[in-house]
Design goal:
The complex is a heterotrimer of chains A (about 325), B (about 325) and C (about 325).
Chain A lengths: L3 E13 L5 E13 L3 E5 L6 H8 L7 E6 L2 E2 L5 H7 L3 E4 L13 H11 L5 H14 L16 H13 L5 E5 L7 H18 L2 E6 L2 H7 L2 E6 L2 E7 H6 L4 H9 L5 H6 L40 E4 L2 E3 L24
Parallel strand pairs in A: 3-8, 3-9, 6-7, 7-8
Antiparallel strand pairs in A: 1-2, 1-4, 4-5, 9-10, 10-12, 11-12
Helix pairs in contact in A: 3-4, 3-5, 4-5, 5-6
Chain B lengths: L1 E14 L2 E14 L3 E5 L6 H8 L8 E10 L2 E2 L5 H7 L4 E4 L3 H4 L6 H12 L4 H14 L5 H4 L9 H13 L5 E5 L7 H18 L2 E6 L2 H7 L2 E6 L2 E7 H6 L4 H9 L38 H5 L4 E5 L2 E4 L3 H6 L1
Parallel strand pairs in B: 3-8, 3-9, 6-7, 7-8
Antiparallel strand pairs in B: 1-2, 1-4, 4-5, 9-10, 10-12, 11-12
Helix pairs in contact in B: 4-5, 5-7, 7-8
Chain C lengths: L21 H11 L1 H28 L42 H37 L1 H16 L2 H11 L5 H31 L3 H8 L4 H37 L11 H9 L7 H32 L3
Helix pairs in contact in C: 1-10, 2-3, 2-10, 3-4, 3-6, 3-8, 3-9, 3-10, 4-6, 5-6, 6-8, 7-8, 8-9, 8-10, 9-10
The chains are: A alpha/beta (about 325), B alpha/beta (about 325), C mainly alpha (about 325).
Chain lengths: ~325, ~325, ~325
């Protein structure tokens, strides 16, 4: 059993919009991330996955909950202490255009963390920056260029180099490939995987792209309206999802094969994703769930281990009856 | 029956960086009732192609430098501007990627819909209103009658895209051009919208040009596909054929770089290098630098457009080999 | 069998390719704008002339701007341009003289020194105060920001011209130099307000950009974020606004001098020259025309330049 690197306990991030309206962006997430693993976090817009990723690093303040990194609760550290810990926890952003300061050269951008943590100076720093650029596949000759002179994929590499500068343990990758062309996405995914192996990194890989998540992750957590609804290892989630939402999500992904597309049966969800400002009572998914019954409107399901290492939050299934299609209509075995 | 025929279309942009040949000599046909997919990455010229069909290219800095766009027997590029305006919306409709910016935030939805039919079909206000409500119902807006008088910001992204589709189809156009209609939407909503487009196409017989970078969408929605790169068509074929037997290294590369969820994890195939700088294209094949199959001739000479079958063409010196292998 | 996918190294050419910063791009765009270039050239010429002019005139003709030729009473009167004491053509006074026989050209150039000096320095002062105030207020946010901006609102609502007039009347200085300093303080202390608002607005929209988040994520301290990351990205609108503030301040100074509250004799600014000149407008129109036209030329050159800068900097100033 690998050691736990990051332990998230009952994390909540609520935004107060004034006038009694609260956005419960993250509403009680408990999750462990093991050292060396890539945990994929998937969900649609408004589910809170980006907020969760940022809250783990305290780039967004938590409303309540704890985030343990090697026995330090990041959520309750002082400003100074937190800055010290930041060395070990880094982030890569989605938008390769907005995540780099347009007025700084590549060398300055990648070198800044070295300066902040006093890891290297002068010649030594310059050399380190050059090494970092080569590690991510960029020529060190570009060190004096500005971000706008690079393509999206190259900018993303610069962002990765910056994150690596301090030799972190843990990296939150917040939709790192969504803004890139298909042919470049594969490059970046391979790069991240290579770096993980070489530098012993742990990733929280956030994305709405199920295909990418399936490819890079060891385990996958599915979020809906601020809560985790299913957690399992990557293959199982894809091949044997238990939650109706996960099933619908997977079936919605178009497959690049005309034969399959022509014959497959899709699980179509009705309606829109509800707003996180007024989440439905009870199970957040009940408004769109084809299997919802009355009790779903009242009870908030907890994440339960339905099968070994496979967790799901649904009152209608239980370890004894894991497959929702086989559950007798109107019953909720999970409640017993 | 051919509805649209594009011949040797060229659209160029004057930029600070030089002349950008965004679309450089493309030709294709669209049969009535068919869905044509145009696939490409950024810089391929796919969006500019559509804008060119309707003469919506911003001028300056762009201009249509040559070619023909023959729609129902008439060359759109030669028509006077008011004739083109009559076609836009009425016979050829377009929906865009971002539903947030394509709708006027200050106008009620009903009014935006009514504008279309009052203008093109000569409806009276009452007729236009009824038609608008009916269209909203058709695209699946719940409570269409009450919600017709809402403003765009009161709708979600998916709903707005449905409204866009309603607007586009309200004059029953013969051709619908959809430019990345679902890229900005969540995957479950995307599935809904694509189903809707499919359904409406069957009911009304509209032909569709669907632009996307997602090969999965192409596989599920289109009859024919053209693959664009650096302003040129690299491959053109029936959809089933393209996926089963691609005839171009670029297409092959694209297909292989999409992660296959059913396969085991492992290194993903990646097309090396970067998309080309369309302002400074080197001689020879624009894909040569990144192509596994490339040889000396690829860097020197521009490749021929090889006919693999009467309905399958590929721009490559080694098309036959790639097709066979 | 998939080929081993490697990490692609870029095809680099020379050693350490120098990048083109956004400034350089903006400069190129500016140069394409003819009106802006015209403005720039005129401003540079007038500035150079103002700085070096009086010295050159002194060397060539031997008089300073305030030299009254008391030696020869015939010369102590107002001559039209290019005319000597007996109506003959003369190169000595291309802009004529004023009532005391002082050379107008030298006076106009010296006036330029003072006017431009006041304009630039007061703008600089307002820039430094305004940028810092606005950046801090915008970054810190919350109640502090609220308070800081309410102060700005209050100051803004004061009728500042009247305030300046009251200030200057109350604290009349004995020396011309003292008066000048008072002018700076008065003018500079009111014009930073808009700058602060502009910068605060920029900072508000920038501070949630991902590159700022990235800086926070790498532990960069707040002051460094403000002055290293945020302020350089606000410089576009700041530069434009500063270029347009200079003429505003010059006009205000001219107005004050017109009222007699600005620069005192023997120092002259364009405004005070115009004030003097207007008294004789019917008989000796050149006393008003020359300072007036020069000032107008400078003002609209600065405005053209400011407009051109706005266009040149605008598309680049966003994080592309």
């Amino acid at each position: 059993m690998a050691e736990t690197l990051i332990a998230i306990k009952d994390l909540r991030v609520h935004f107060n919009l004034g006038g009694n309206r609260i956005v419960k962006a993250v509403d009680g997430v408990t999750l462990d991330i093991a050292k060396g693993e890539t945990l994929g976090l998937v969900g649609e817009s408004g589910c809170g996955k980006s907020t969760l990723g940022r809250a783990v690093l305290r780039l967004t303040e938590l409303t309540s909950g704890q985030v343990f990194y090697r026995n330090n609760d990041l959520a309750h550290l002082s400003g100074r202490q937190l800055r010290e810990q930041r060395r070990h926890l880094q982030i890569i952003f989605q938008d390769p255009y907005a995540s780099l300061n347009p007025r700084m050269t590549v060398g300055q951008i990648v070198g800044e963390p070295l300066e902040t943590f006093r890891l290297a100076r002068g010649r030594e720093a310059e050399q380190r920056v050059q090494e970092l650029l080569e590690t991510v596949g960029l020529s060190k000759r570009f060190i004096k260029r500005y971000p706008h002179e690079f393509s999206g994929g190259q900018r993303q590499r610069i962002g990765i180099a910056r994150a690596l500068a301090v030799d972190p343990d843990f990296i939150v990758a917040d939709e790192p490939i969504s803004a890139l062309d298909v042919s470049i996405q594969a490059q970046i995914m391979n790069l991240l995987e290579k770096l993980r192996r070489e530098k012993n990194l742990t990733y929280l890989f956030i994305s709405h792209d199920l295909r990418a998540i399936r490819h890079v992750s060891d385990r996958v957590a599915v979020m809906y309206l601020g809560k985790l609804v299913e957690v399992a290892d990557a293959k199982t989630i894809y091949v044997e999802p238990l939650m109706p939402y996960t099933k619908a999500l997977i079936s919605a992904v178009p497959v690049p094969d005309p034969e399959i597309e022509a014959t497959r049966q899709r699980i179509m969800l009705e309606g829109d994703v509800p707003s996180p400002i007024n989440p439905p009572k009870g199970c957040p998914f009940h408004t769109r769930c084809p299997y919802a019954i009355d009790v779903c409107k009242e009870v908030i399901p907890q994440l339960v281990e339905i099968k070994p290492a496979h967790f799901a939050a649904c009152v209608r299934i239980s370890p004894a009856m894991p497959h929702i299609e086989e559950v007798p209509p109107g019953t909720a075995p999970g409640l017993e | 029956m051919i509805l649209l025929e594009v011949k040797d279309l060229r659209t160029y942009f004057e930029t600070d960086d030089g002349l950008v040949k965004a679309v450089d000599g493309i030709s294709f046909q669209l049969q009535r009732g068919e869905t044509l997919g145009i696939v490409g990455e950024s810089g391929s010229g796919k969006s500019v192609t559509n804008l060119s069909i309707l003469r919506l290219v911003p001028d300056p800095p762009g201009k249509i430098a040559g070619g023909e766009v023959i729609f129902n027997g008439q060359d759109i590029l030669l028509l006077p501007s008011d004739a083109v305006r009559k076609i836009r919306g009425r016979r050829i409709a377009m929906i865009f990627q971002d539903p947030m910016t394509s709708l006027n935030p200050f106008m009620k939805i009903s009014r935006q819909l009514m504008e279309m039919t009052q203008l093109h079909l000569g409806h009276t206000k009452a007729q236009a209103y009824e038609h608008a409500v009916k269209m909203l119902e058709t695209v699946g807006i719940p409570d269409a009658r009450t919600r017709a008088d809402s403003y765009p910001h009161e709708f979600s992204g998916g709903m707005r895209q449905r409204v866009m589709i309603a607007m586009a189809l309200s004059c029953e156009p013969e051709l619908l051009i959809a430019d990345e209609p679902t890229t900005a939407l969540d995957v479950t909503i995307q599935a809904q919208i694509l189903e809707l487009i499919k359904k409406l196409k069957q009911e009304t017989g509209t032909s569709v040009i669907l632009i996307t970078h997602d090969l999965g969408i192409v596989a599920g929605m289109t009859d024919h596909v053209i693959v664009m790169y650096a302003g040129k068509i690299f491959e053109q074929a029936k959809t089933k054929e393209l996926f089963a037997r691609p005839g171009n290294p670029y297409t092959k590369g694209l297909l292989r770089s999409v992660p296959d969820p059913t396969a085991e994890q492992g290194k993903l195939y990646q097309i090396p290098g970067l998309p080309p700088d369309v302002a400074h294209l080197k001689p020879g094949c624009p894909f040569a630098e990144r192509c596994e199959r490339a040889e000396e001739i690829c860097r020197r000479e521009f490749p021929p457009f090889v006919e693999l079958t009467p309905d399958h063409h590929s721009l490559c010196h080694f098309a036959n080999e790639v097709y066979g292998g | 069998m998939q080929p081993e996918p490697e990490i692609q190294t870029e095809l680099g050419h020379d050693e350490f390719i120098k990048g083109t910063s956004l400034w350089r791009d903006a400069w190129r765009r500016l140069l394409k704008n003819k009106l802006a270039v015209f403005g720039l050239v005129v401003v540079i010429l007038i500035t150079l002339a103002s700085i070096t002019g009086p010295t050159i005139i002194k060397r060539t003709f031997g008089f300073t701007p305030d030299y009254i030729p008391t030696g020869d009473m015939k010369l102590v009167r107002s001559f039209p341009p290019f005319k000597g004491p007996d109506g003959e053509f003369s190169w000595t006074h291309p802009m004529g003289t004023d009532n005391a026989g002082r050379d107008q050209l030298a006076r106009v150039l010296q006036g330029g020194q003072i006017s431009l000096f006041v304009g630039v320095i007061a703008t600089l002062v307002s820039l430094i105060i305004g940028v810092s105030y606005g950046a801090i207020s915008g970054y810190v946010g919350g109640r502090v920001d609220n308070l800081m901006m309410r102060i700005v609102d209050v100051l803004y609502s004061l009728p500042y011209v009247i305030l300046v007039i009251v200030l200057l009347s109350m604290f009349r200085s004995q020396t011309p130099r003292g008066q000048l300093i008072l002018l700076f303080v008065a003018l500079g202390s009111v014009s930073w307000l808009t700058m602060a608002r502009i910068v605060r607005g920029q900072v508000l929209s920038l501070k949630n950009q991902e590159f700022v988040l990235a800086a926070r994520a790498t532990g960069v301290s707040a002051p460094r974020i403000i002055f290293r990351h945020l302020v350089p990205n606000t410089l576009g609108p700041v530069i434009v606004y500063a270029t347009l503030t200079i003429p505003q301040i010059m006009l205000t100074e001219a107005f004050l001098s017109f009222l007699g509250l600005g620069v005192q004799a023997p120092l002259a600014s364009w405004g005070s020259l115009a004030a003097d000149g207007i008294q004789n407008i019917a008989i000796f129109p050149w006393q008003l025309i020359f300072p007036g036209v020069t000032m107008a030329l400078t003002l609209f050159s600065l405005n053209f330049l400011g407009d051109g800068l706005r266009d040149a900097l605008d598309p680049q100033m966003r994080t592309i």
